[in-house]
Amino acid sequence: MIKSIWKPKYLNKNKKRIIDNFFEIEIKELLEMKYHNCKVIFTCDICNSNDIHSSSSSSLLRSKYNNINSQTCRSCRSKISEYEIRKTYIPFIEIERRLYDENYKMISTEEEYMESDNRSQFRIKVICGGNHIHHITWNNWNKGRRCRKCYEDNKFNKAIKYKEGFELYMFDVLRLTEISYRKHKLIIDPNNLRSLDHHLDHIFSKYEGFKYGINPEIISSPINLKIVKSEYNLTKGKRSDITKKVLLEKYNKYTDKAI
């Protein structure tokens, strides 16, 4: 049962639109205007508990579980979904065959699968055609999702197919730099400054890294990354702030410490 509907009131602050507060509206207004950003407060009509739940008006307008006349909580939706899945239950041998047809090999056993309370979400351990061990669920497999590592490798190979020389080197450095930044963000950018005003800078430049044949992993390592003002980075150009000798010394100390 719907208890109330609350529409957000927005406020412009620092050129950003933020929610200031909420005000209550009638169901009739929601249906006429079709707002998609309201909060709907309700109690579940399936389990009939007194617990208060909330959802978005988008759910109210589009969901097959929630509508004007009936509201369903998350727990009841899960039970209904699982019941519907059980009605169209896929036998283990059929899943095994479907995986085999795409050069996947099952590691999980039929016993593990059958003992699962939610078979559609059971994480099946497999080996893909690229020899990568990972987990899938039957739901995700049916949606066309396959090995993430194979997907990333294929995307990378397509990206570098027609690149060579400096272009290939730059592609590799930038790719590894983003990985390094995400992994070592607390060291490189603890104050979360990277933006239009602050850039991620390579202390020993990418250009000179290519010029001297330095491994992209060294150029993109955390010891060669720092956050600088955008004005400085744009005027720096191809120049490096340290020498090749200093770079390699810093990297050797970093790798020795890691070991």
Overview of the molecule:
There is one protein chain. By secondary structure, the protein is α+β, with helices and mostly antiparallel strands. 45% of the residues lie in helices and 19% in strands. The chain folds into 3 domains: 2-84, no CATH class; 89-150, no CATH class; 162-258, no CATH class. The chain has helices spanning 27-33, 57-62, 74-87, 92-101, 110-115, 138-142, 148-160, 165-183, 185-188, 206-211, 216-219, 230-236, 244-258; strands at 2-13, 16-25, 39-42, 53-56, 105-106, 124-127, 133-136, 198-202, 225-229. Strand 1 and strand 2 (16-25) form a beta hairpin.
In a few lines, what is going on in this structure?
By secondary structure, this protein is α+β, with helices and mostly antiparallel strands.
Oligomer: single chain
- The end-to-end span amounts to 60 Å
Helicity, in percent?
Answer: 40-55%
Count of discrete domains = 3
Helix count from the secondary structure assignment = 13
Strand order of the largest sheet: 2-1-3-4
Question: What fraction strand?
Answer: 15-25%
The residue-averaged pLDDT reads: 86
Low-confidence stretches: none
Structural class: alpha+beta
| Radius of gyration from CA coordinates | 27 Å
Q: What's the SSE pattern?
A: EEHEEHHHEHEEHHHHEHHEHH
Bulk shape: flat
Question: What's the count of strands?
Answer: 9
The largest sheet, given as strand count, sense and whether it forms a barrel, is: 4 strands, antiparallel
